[in-house]
Design goal:
Distance between the termini: 40 Å
Number of domains: 1
Strand content: 15-25%
Helix content: 40-55%
Shape: globular
Number of helices: 8
CATH class: Alpha Beta
Strand order of the largest sheet: 3-2-1-4-5-7-6
Length: 201
């Protein structure tokens, strides 16, 4: 997907990324981690704001594109599912966009817990993923038809369906012991942005 991602998928996510930046405005003093950074489009906004940015992904091809986009402005790591190669309490913000639903069902809660581990007490997690509730307007209804087709095209449909059956992001956050601070419904009701503050201690 790396060679077509920015042309086919990213334009649909660009508006959501802008909303996420407004929800949690970046501070130039921050160190920001993007889990599943893909081609680096999400990290670029934080790098442009002066943050130190770090990205991890399981795809070498995606990271190659991210390197082309960000150059030496980002620290990028090819990782395997499981613990990330960072000490705890390191980052001010950890973000993940449209990644959790792609993980195997048994790996979703550990992924969220691992993100929380590497965030400083008082730091934030920003999670963007599918929402399966009521829709808003014609755009919401159209996207509800289109998005499963995209998931089939990208090979993630089975994970998408299991994610839907399990109730999406909120049960995963609860199972990881995390409480939602704020949420913003976007894309006509098809996506949601969650802001979570890591409790001290």
């Amino acid at each position: 997907m790396a060679h077509v991602y920015d042309r086919l998928i990213e334009p649909m996510q660009a508006g959501v990324r802008r909303i996420a930046l407004d929800l949690v405005p970046p501070d130039p003093a921050w160190e920001v981690l993007d889990v599943g950074c893909g081609t680096g489009t999400g990290l670029a906004g934080y790098a442009d704001a002066g943050c130190d940015v770090v990205g991890v992904d399981v795809s070498a091809a995606m990271l190659e594109r991210a390197t082309e986009r960000l150059g030496d402005r980002a620290e990028l790591h090819l990782v395997s599912p499981g613990p990330m190669p960072f000490e705890g309490d390191r980052f001010d913000l950890a973000i993940t966009s449209m990644v959790i639903h792609e993980a195997p069902e048994e790996g979703r809660v550990p992924l969220v817990r691992e993100m929380a581990r590497v965030v400083k007490p008082g730091g934030r997690l920003l999670v963007i993923d599918f929402r399966f509730g009521s829709l808003r307007g014609w755009r919401g209804r159209a996207l509800r038809v289109i998005l499963p087709i995209i998931e089939r095209f990208t090979g993630h449909y089975r994970q998408y369906r299991s994610f839907q059956t399990a109730g999406g992001v909120p049960p995963l956050l609860a199972a990881a012991g995390l409480e939602i601070e704020r949420e913003k419904i976007v894309a006509g009701g098809n996506l949601v942005i969650f802001v979570i503050t890591r409790a001290p201690g």
